[in-house]
Amino acid sequence: MNERNFNAESIKGTLYVLLSAICFSTGGVLIKLIPWSSVSIQGIRSIFSTVVIGGYLLLHHRKFICNKAVVFGAVCNTVMAFSFVAATKLTSAANAIVLQFTEPVFVILLLWLLYKKKPGKDAVLACVIVFSGILCFFFESLSGGGLLGDFLAVFSGFSYALVMMMKKFPGADFESSLLLSNLFSVVVGIPAYVKEAEFSMEIWFFMVLLGVIQFGVSYIFLSKGLDKVSPVAASLTSTIEPILNPLLVAVFCGETVGRTAFLGALLVVGGATVYNLRQAAKKAAG
What pTM value is reported for the model? Predict the structure, then answer.
């Protein structure tokens, strides 16, 4: 592949990741607008997402693969999804998405623990900055509530780190894990569906958007993007999500964050972004 084709593919991959981040960023406002429990929301949106992911596999003649690596990835994605929706319900959308954005730091720590890849000075500094930001969120939650939601959001970030490392596991298949994860979510949510009392057309409209766009199309864009750009470049492009998500919630739901949480958001997003920029610069230089 010549340099011109490589640049074209890189631009296309970046665009896919950007579209993915935009689709993902609608999650906060849609979850806030739906008056169902977090379990019902995750279960029902997974039905629509299953149709999207399954249709994508059929359209591209991709076979569904089921092995230990795929099942493990599916479990991690299921846990991540349930904990994130619950976090968004229990705390502010800004807290939930920014604390989930701690995922790059957990990737650093997991690579160290699982693959003995010792973090460099940049990684250590990023971890310190990001965890300082986390403390800011928890400090504000002690007085304003939402502490459980913050814990779940951080746990979602940890689970998401395992999802992003999925392709490192022998025998893993990203799309198969997504499809299986959706099926897990649908089954887990069954007991919660019958407890819901509101089923207006507006709610179903939001649910379709949540399942098709935010949880289906977004993952397809992400998968196609990761085939063309590095995880570092993808992480940089995805920085728009923790910015756009709370902005949409503020506009449509009137939800804002306090000063301490805002400082925490700057530390988390800033620390992760600076780390990714330095890694990209080193890769370009080397």
Answer: 0.86
